[in-house]
Amino acid sequence: MAQTSHPPLTLRQKLTQLWEKxxxxxxxxxxxxxxxxxxxxxIPEFNLVNPYVQLIMMYVGIxxxxxxxxxxxxxxxxxxxxxxxxxxxxxxxxxxxxxxxxFARDLNPWLFPLAVLAGGIGAALIGLIVAIPSFKxxxxxxxxxxxxxxMIVKSVIENIEAIGGPRGIPGIPRLTTLxxxxxxxxxxxxxxRNFIYSNHGRGVLSIREDEIASDLMSVNTRKSxxxxxxxxSFFAGIAGAxxxxxxxxxxxxxxxxxxxxxxxxxxxxxxxxxxxxxxxxASIFTILLELLRPLGMWRMVLMPLVLVLLMxxxxxxxxxxxxxxxxxPIDDLEATRRWRARKEAGDAAASS
Length: 352
Prior knowledge:
The protein has helices spanning 11-24, 28-46, 51-76, 84-102, 112-134, 140-158, 178-196, 199-209, 211-216, 221-247, 257-270, 275-291, 299-313, 330-351. It is mainly α and 352 residues long. The chain has a domain at 35-41 and 50-256.
């Protein structure tokens, strides 16, 4: 009996098969984390790459935290928040005040995590206060509330002379290093991933699909919303604290609506409802923005144009509603395989 010959695989098919093998190898992720942690210490210590590249790597990590935290609201919960820079500003100012005024006399680098954590907790508390009345509204109304919050935070900071007012806070010590950014980024990915696949996270996903049906199925939608919004605000504050100690200067203008728009672009570029998409979106946006820097102000025209084209040809983004298998719990993968097997068996039985 003659054997059937298969057509040769195209380059795209070969790359797809290679990527699937890498993605299904769950031992690779911890290896990559160990290698990444080692490199984050070795690169600054031995100056393996120039300081400019190290700075871009730190901005990539900070933007990953921002994108993940906003994706929790806009992607996984299905709401639309546009004031994320406001929570970032709260974390940045709290940590900057601690390191420049309270810890200034005896500033120990090991106190820096406490300042970052304080910025995150402060942003989480503000996020909780904003979330309680905000979630009585939905959709476009929530966008208006969060936009107003961003403007209120900016105006309040401009009118407090104790923290510099419109002049901002200069002379912030350079405490953010590549290892600290790597550690906080991995922590953000781990916490948000575990939250998404927890009971509360599944409640958040059910809200995105149908909030009324979730209520009927005894899901405490209010509690799930508050937890998601508070966690999102917390990591926005963490990112703001890291950002302040990289930039070494902050002012209210840094955290205006344009900053919130940049975070939105990263979320929708990488794809909503995807941890891997958030990592890709933040990395691509940050690196592409630096590569286009020689174009001057034209790069601020090209980046929104890229987003418009993406919305036209791939509305969900690069990884919208899809996930790398590294980030999916093994139990969920096994349940998906069993469901697909039953579905294929049912289809086969129906066709016969």
